[in-house]
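Please fill in the sequence for the structure shown.

STRUCTURE ENCODING:
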């Protein structure tokens, strides 16, 4: 029986995943602290939690949860990203004179966003200059979608932003069937183009760039991504992975 581990902090999304897991006949362990019980070493576990808590579980149980590579966007064909993207260290990014969208390539050590120049990034006292970052051309996303994929097939997904603002209206995440098909198609195409570099289960975000068209936004770990309007029962299908045992 699969065991879904949830963090101590309650949230609407973790509650939705708990309900879906119980309905599917899974065992659910919502930990009461960051201390990981030894008995979980004998369980077939998966997780739905933020990266720092997931790292704690990995260390305690000697596991590695599937995560897309930091430079995955750079492996995609240019027509799938529709913008210039560069990888560098935070120290190098601090020297950039121009405006850009800058984000941590791995853990969220600082806030991703548009910076007027590299000088506006957090200084060395706050974040080490060795941190890897991605620097992208500034574009306007008219819509942004998220898809939970397994073996290259999007099991569920939804729109989540429109022009940088939440797409939720009265609990609904509405989009047209045509939009959904186009956003889903590029997510699945991006997986197919780079399958050898991605885990079997992964989240891919796509969207429509004003004046350019549909493009890939980023890839995220399946176990740490917000649900938005996705179906928790279908998300659960993508969380039924086997974590890698550390050597």
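FILLED IN BY: designer on duty
SEQUENCE:
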């Amino acid at each position: 029986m699969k065991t879904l581990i949830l963090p101590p902090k309650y949230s609407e999304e973790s509650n939705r995943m708990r309900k879906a897991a119980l309905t599917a006949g899974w065992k659910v362990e919502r930990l009461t602290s960051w201390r990981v019980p030894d008995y979980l070493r004998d369980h077939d576990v998966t997780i739905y939690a933020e990266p720092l808590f997931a790292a704690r579980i990995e260390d305690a149980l000697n596991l590695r949860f599937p995560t897309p590579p930091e430079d995955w966007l750079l492996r995609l064909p240019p027509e799938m990203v529709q913008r210039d993207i560069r990888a560098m260290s935070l120290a190098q990014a601090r020297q950039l004179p121009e405006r850009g969208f800058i984000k941590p390539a791995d853990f969220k050590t600082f806030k991703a966003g548009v910076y007027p120049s590299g000088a506006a990034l957090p200084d060395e006292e706050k974040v080490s200059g060795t941190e890897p970052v991605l620097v992208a051309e500034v574009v306007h996303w008219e819509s942004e979608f998220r898809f939970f994929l397994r073996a290259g097939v999007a099991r569920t997904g939804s729109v989540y932003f429109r022009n940088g603002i939440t797409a939720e209206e009265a609990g609904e995440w509405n989009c047209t069937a045509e939009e959904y098909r186009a956003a889903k198609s590029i997510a699945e195409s991006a997986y197919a183009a780079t399958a050898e570099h991605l885990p079997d289960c992964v989240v891919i975000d796509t969207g429509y760039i004003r004046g350019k068209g549909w493009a890939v936004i980023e890839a995220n770990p399946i176990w740490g991504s917000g649900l938005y309007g996705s179906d928790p029962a279908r998300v659960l299908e993508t969380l039924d992975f086997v974590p890698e045992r550390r050597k």
